[in-house]
Amino acid sequence: AMGKSLRGVPCVVVVSVVVMVVLCCVDGVVCRKGKIAGVVDLRDPTQQLPHYRKEETMRRLSVRRHYPSRRYPTPPATATDHSTPFTASTSTKDHHYNGARKTRTDAAGICTPQQTDTLPTLAALEAEEQQIRAQLAAVRKGLSTLNAHTTATTNHTTNPTDNSIAWQVLQQIRDATSNTTTSPSLSSSPSLSPSLSSSPILSPSPSLSHSPTRSLSSSRSRTVSPSVSPSVSPSPPPDYPDNPVDRASLITLWKATGGPHGHWAYNYNPHSPWGLPHTSMCSWSGVGCTYLPYGPVEDQMYEKRVDSLNLYRYNLTGTLPAEICRMMYVRYLLFGMNMGLVGPVPSCLGTDMLLVFQLSLEQTMLTGQFPPIVNLNNLGSLTMSGPLYGTGPNGFPMGMERLVAMKGMQLQHFGLHGVLAEDHPLCQLRSIEQIDLSYNTLQGPLPMCMSALVNLTTVNIANNPINTTFPKFLLSLPKLGTIELPYTQLSGPLPANLPKSVSTLYLGNNAFMGTIPDWSNLTELSYINLDSNNLIGPIPITLCNNTQLQGITANENALKGNVPPCLLELGLRYQLQFVSFEHNHLSGELEPISCPNNTINTENDENVNCTTTQLRMIMLSHNRFNGSIPHSYINVRTMWKLVLNNNRLSGQLPDRVFEHTALTEVYLHSNNMSGPLPPEFFRIPSLRFASLDHNQFTGTVPVDIYGNHSIVALSASHNNLTGPLPYSTNRTRLTSLVSLDLSYNNLTDTAMNYYYSNRGAAYYSFAGNWQMQATASEVGNNWGPMPSGEQNFYNGYVCPRLEMIDTHALFEVSPIYYNFTLCSCVPGYFGNPTQNCTKCPQNGLCAGPNMTWPRGFYPVFQNQVILGFLPCSDPSTLNSSDCNAFNNCSLAWYQAGKPNCRLCAPGSEDRLCSRCICESPSDCYYRRHNQCSRCEAPEVTYSILGAVVLSIVLIVLAVMALRIFLPVAFTHLKQAFECIAESGTLKVLLIYLQTTIALNGVWPTWVAQHGIHVLELANGQVIALGLPCIIPALGKPVWEQLIYLMIIPVATVGLAFVVGFVYGFRRLLPFILPKPSKYAQVGIVNDYKVVSTTSIDTPIIEGEADSEEAIEGDAESDEGDGDGTKAVVAGHWLLTWRWGVSVWMFFVYFFFFNLANRALRVFNCVADPLLNGSRYMQTLPWVQCYTATGAWPKMASMAVVMLVVYIAGIPVLFGWLLWRYRKRTQLPHVRGMLHILYYSYRPQRYWFELFIIARRLTLAVLISVVERDSIYRPAALTTVLLLCIAVQCWIWPFTRRRDNILEVVALGVITLTFVGQTSWWNATKLVNPTVGLLAQVLPVTEGGSSLDGDNVLLVVMALANGGLLAVMTMVVVWPLVLWFLRLCFPKSVDRAELFIHKVTPPWLYTLFN
To answer: Cα separations (Å) of 815 from 133, 452, 777, 798?
Structure first.
């Protein structure tokens, strides 16, 4: 389509093809395909040259840099001696051959040989290159003319640099002649800033302190046109072409670092974009160029080469391409402050950049190692930082010793580490002047070889853990001017013999000790920084001899004495600008300072108007100065900052102020200054910031603060200022006052409206002025709460932060200013802010003026004042507690005494609602499930009781009938009961129930309500069954304690009565009960003849039969004998007595654990957390302990008796019996009386019952005496239980294997249940129970204060205990079940038993057999 529309296109194509062929031949492409010996391209420094040719190249390039006006010498008109080598002082006509090349290309493009014996010089090679470039220039000129003609012919209006055919041909020609495959991009994109004037590199010389970038215009101004001779071409045209290699390299860099995507920013100048095809690369932002000639002398041409590349802080993103190394004439290469640069540094940067003088790679994200330094011999300034690192010694760059021209090196955050050796490569940089190795991990001592770096002027090793004394090599550097060693952990004394050339000394934040030495010989010393050391002693007066001193700081030391006046006068006579000795121990009065000509008025110390004054800052805060402030401190003409806060200054503010003083900032807070605020002080025209708070100033606020419109911030809080606020009719004069703090004074409330309208206000504070009152019209009109909702917290209440409605300035006043109308109590407080809100009591719910508390908590009062709320029960039953049962109790902040509501549910009263009311059987409540339950109707109770008694009578009658009518079945029944009574399983079951009920009291709701109270019978607790409904005395703790105290004596008397009754019953009704056989008489006479038995009543002598018929027959054969009658009577009495003793032993054994708990719990008194000194019983929370009156003294007396008689007596009795009968344990009468103590154990383990007694007593002490919330209780109980399991497994005491297994399982279930319930109990007290797996098992209800009673953990514990209880109960009653089945189904039972024996596993059959 283009060919049809353009007439001249065919001509352009033909000419272009011909020109391409000619140029290929001219450029040597067709001459042996570019392999002509000796032909090199001087633009490409990557070509491998012989060593001598490299030296020649470097020599010539170095000569070029010495020409200030041009980058390449112009050849003269006449030739000179061709054999003279090329130097800076000779003529430059040496572009001709000094020798001859083996092969060359003539002007016609024909390759012709040249017969020579020597190699050509570089001058000849470069002259030939210029000739070739001249030919290329002619071709380009012809193409441009042809292109212009074609454009004019076809009326084509597009830019000639777009994608036209002529432009494409020209690009192909340029690519072929420059030996590159990269063509410049035709797209344009905005890029970043061109300036490098603020580059933070370390300047190696004064000339490097400015930007090295040269713009095109500056290059032109410094370039002189070559001289013209008759035999050469005229001066080159002003528009020189870009070197294609450099341009292509820049385009590659631009694309690789996010330029086309618009990422470049910050210093990048978008008005000088990169990549536009019609613009010179020298006009691109950050690119500096120089001009270099090429072509023959007759037609010399120039081109632009990149001389500097300054992309400092251009927001480059991406990687650095290796093509940047092709720009062989670059001397300044700066990529610093580009955090988007990533990836490694091109390896060619250390080998191919021969002319680079300044390299900047700091604060980038370039990673990996810096390439080894090989050919960077001209590098004079190097700036790098991490994540880059070096591979040389201690993390320095490899090959650093080759940097012979190095002037300045900055390696901050470069990963330098370790101790530098004495032969370190750093010591070989003899020309280096500036070193910056800060922010690394170098360690000391520094090597003495660094003393050879005699040209050093600046040393910065800050922030390295040198951890030694002052480096000694610094003392021998004659030119050293700046020493920066802060944060290096240096210690020891400060050096006194520093080099005289030192001007800046920065030794702060170290551990130097001792005094400040005499540095008066340091005539160039200008800045001293000794902050944060351990210096002591006075400030040396010899510092007054350092007339060049411009600043000194020694803050945070332990200096003593006063500041020498002559030191401050250095600022009046010479160059001292600031003095800072803050946070020291300086003391004394501040002495006036004077001018050298004594122009000061010494009488009143007023004006210090020295013409040579330079003093600007005096900072002496946090010391111990006293006395008044001299007027001269304020009246110094150049003084602009005075810091004297946190001292002991007194007196008044200076009231004679020099009108020309430059004082800008004054900080005098936290002193003892007094008197009125002088108006003259606030008339200082330059005053901007004044801090006068925490003093004792009096009087009113001067109205002059309005006349001085330069004041920006004024703070005079915490003084004794009085009167109304100042008022000025000229409102515009207050616009500069941004911050005003007059809080905590005694100001009144006039003229406040004037402050509301100040447009420049940002913060006004009048808080703490309790006499200021707002008018009704101000609230909501002039000020109001901040929209952000910010608040100020006071004593229990919160008030919103206010802002002025017109200016939106922060406005702080005391709440009384608006009568607390916007204030409210903070969460956790209640009451009225006007009376100071009261802290909400523990477990209370406070909101505003009222206080409530949730159900399950009881209020504690003291002197009509509520102290807090205590939980009435365990956390699982708070929602069903008797405390605040209706959940409607509240208390106002002004209300004293108990609230007008029902604190306890009906039927409960007293502390924690723990006491049940039982006035009469018709109106009686008893304790059940941590609540007071109402008794049923008396008729129901008596009916149940009668049914129980009737059932017992029927059972007795049935047994008697069975004895009469079915004697064989009766005998089997009696054997079944004997098996149960002597079974170890019964003992295991009894101890398990007693321990579990006493130790584990937290059960799921359905367990607690449906059966757990029945199991309490195992401990003899009958209250939960409702017996207080029949016997109200059981509901009273004293009577209950008395009943348990007397239960064994009463039981003993009752049992004696039963024994007598049975004995009489046997005498009166001999036909009902069998008579004792003769073998009973034998047992009476000689116990040792009885060797075995099958029942309590019938002993069997060795060799006799054990059938009932034989025994009865022997008894009947003796009826006629007179002596036999007496034996029968004695036998009846013996059997009855043994039966009574056996029952009494079981009764005592049964009640021992319960009696121990009841006696010990009386002394388990816990302190009330709210009432100091008050203690209450943990089991009976309404009974107060350690009082002279009340229930507790009576209960304690009975408990002592129980402890002596029962708790100590019963174990002694059991031990004595076992010891007395230890050798007769198998006798029938011993077995009949004491079988509960030993018969279930193996014979050699008859004493194991004493261990069981000790275990039960230990558990009783831990359960009843130790507080439930004690941190030691769970650990102690768990330890005891685990120890018992270990002893059981080790001793294995029971006769039956079944009983041993059940004992281990029972102890294990008790332990696991206790641990689980204790963990649950403790977790309920946590606001957020996050204790690992436990937090996942224990679900938290709303509020996080209690847990669900039916959670997984408690249900699992209940099921485990229920399963164990069922198994042991079945094992115990199995003999009765088997007796009943044999009685009803004798044959079927035998067959079933035989079948079960065959199919049942042995361990299971043994368990029930």
So the answer is: 89, 72, 16, 9
- Write down the pLDDT at residue 60: 37
First-to-last C-alpha distance (Å) of the chain? 113
Interstrand relation of 865-871 and 857-862 (parallel, antiparallel or unpaired): antiparallel
Q: Are strands 111-113 and 585-589 parallel, antiparallel or unpaired?
A: unpaired
DSSP count for the chain of H helices, then E strands: 30, 60
The pair of structure tokens assigned to 1219 is 């010891």
Beta bridge partner(s), residue 242: 304
Which conformational region is residue 179 in: left (phi greater than 0), alpha (psi within -120 to 50 degrees), or beta?
left
Rounded alpha-carbon distances, angstroms, from residue 1391 to 105, 975, 1382, 1386, 1395: 128, 22, 11, 9, 6
pTM of the model: 0.57
Tell me the two tokens of residue 1344.
């996080």
- Which residue, 403, 340, 398, is CA-closest to 375? 403
Q: Per the omega criterion (within 30 degrees of 0), is the bond before 445 cis? A: yes
- If one counts every other C-beta atom within 10 angstroms of the C-beta of residue 592, the result is 16
Per-residue tokens: 210: 């400015």
Tokens of 1099: 């002993």
pLDDT digits (tens, 9 = 90+) for 1053-1062: 777 777 666 6
pLDDT tens digit sequence for 46-74: 333 333 333 433 433 433 333 333 333 33
Q: What angle do CA 144, 149, 150 make, to 5 degrees?
A: 95
Specify the pLDDT at position 674. 93
Count other C-beta atoms under 10 Å from residue 474's C-beta. 20
Q: In this structure, what are the phi and psi dihedrals at residue 1167, rounded to the nearest 5 degrees?
A: -75, 140
C-alpha–C-alpha distance, residues 1117 and 1149, integer Å: 41
Q: CA torsion, points 608, 610, 613, 615, in degrees to nearest 10?
A: 0
Alpha-carbon distance of 176 to 23, in angstroms, equals: 8
C-alpha of 729 from chain center: 56
Q: Of the candidates 915, 903, 994, which has an alpha carbon nearest to the alpha carbon of residue 1252?
A: 994
Q: Cα(1099)–Cα(1078) distance, rounded to whole angstroms? A: 10
609: pLDDT strictly greater than 70: no
DSSP labels for 629-672?
PPHHHHHBTT--EEE--SSEE-S-------TT----EEE--SS-
Q: Residue 1312 corresponds to which tokens in the numbers above?
A: 């696991």
Across the beta sheet with 797-800, what order do the strands follow?
Answer: 791-793, 797-800, 824-825
Would you give the DSSP letter of residue 488?
S
Residue pair 1101/1051 in contact by the 8 Å Cβ criterion:
no
Residue that is written with structure tokens 């036209």 in the block: 164
Tokens standing for residue 962:
């069975």
Residue 145 identity (one-letter amino acid): T
For residue 1143, give the amino acid letter. V
For residue 102, give the amino acid letter. K
Helix or strand run (H / E) with residue 191: none
Letter string b/e over residues 989-1004, b meaning 16 or more CB atoms within 10 A of that residue's CB = bbbbbbbbbbbbebbb
Cα gap 436→382, rounded to integer Å: 10
Rounded to whole angstroms, the Cα distance separating 254 from 275 reads: 8
Cβ atoms within 10 Å of 820's Cβ, excluding its own:
17
Is the model's pLDDT at 882 over the cut of 60? yes
H/E segment holding residue 765:
strand 763-766
The answer to whether 1348 and 1339 are in contact (CB under 8 A) is: yes
- Return the DSSP state at 1205: I
Strands (E), 446-557: 458-460, 482-484, 491-493, 504-506, 511-514, 527-529, 534-537, 551-553
* Residue 798, number of CB atoms within 10 A of its CB: 18
Task: Quote the CA–CA distance of 361 and 352 in Å, as a whole number.
Answer: 17
Q: What are phi and psi of 892, to 5 degrees?
A: -80, 160
Bin 157: left if φ > 0, else alpha if -120 < ψ < 50, else beta.
alpha
97: its two tokens: 């051959």
